[in-house]
Amino acid sequence: MSRIATVVNDLRNGLGAIKLRSDVKKVTLVFSGKSDNAGARYFVRENMPRLQYNNPAIKFDVQKVKEAGVSPELTIEFANNDIKKISCSRIQSAEICKQFLVATTEGSAASA
């Protein structure tokens, strides 16, 4: 398999390779590169590319702040202006992704 085929296959398969609800408008992840935010860093590297590839209409924003002590947080904005926040402090990337998918896939409530 060529390198390009391998990359595309990885984007189409794995945790996060799913179509999100149509009312998800924007996803923002804020974290510090200088503290214990390994889960958030790995989420950006491992899961977010799959989410972006499979949901091109949704705006994904990553804010890596330089100050230490910033608690990592994933914010989901919906079309009806509801906002769901997920704390990512001391959580592995797979768990962050699972919590994100529960909040954003079909059949889940935006305010849950």
Which parts are unreliable, with pLDDT below 50 for 5 consecutive residues or more?
Answer: 108-112
Q: Return the structural class.
A: alpha+beta
What's the count of strands? 4
Sequence of secondary-structure elements: HEHEEEH
Give the termini separation. 42 Å
Specify the biggest β-sheet: 4 strands, mixed
Averaged pLDDT: 86
Question: Taking strands numbered 1, 2, ... along the chain, how are they ordered across the largest sheet?
Answer: 2-1-3-4
Helix content: 25-40%
Q: Please, what is the oligomeric state? A: single chain
Report the sheet-strand fraction.
15-25%
Estimated radius of gyration: 14 Å
Number of helices: 3
Approximate shape: globular
In short:
With 112 residues, the chain is of the alpha+beta class. It contains 3 helices and 4 strands.
Structure description:
- It is a single chain.
- With 112 residues, this protein is of the alpha+beta class.
- The protein has a 4-stranded mixed beta sheet, covered by helices on one side.
- Helix 2 crosses helix 3.
- The termini are far apart.
- One of its GO terms (cellular component) is ribosome.
- Keywords: Mitochondrion, Ribonucleoprotein, Ribosomal protein.
- This is Ribosomal protein/NADH dehydrogenase domain-containing protein.
- It comes from Linnemannia schmuckeri.
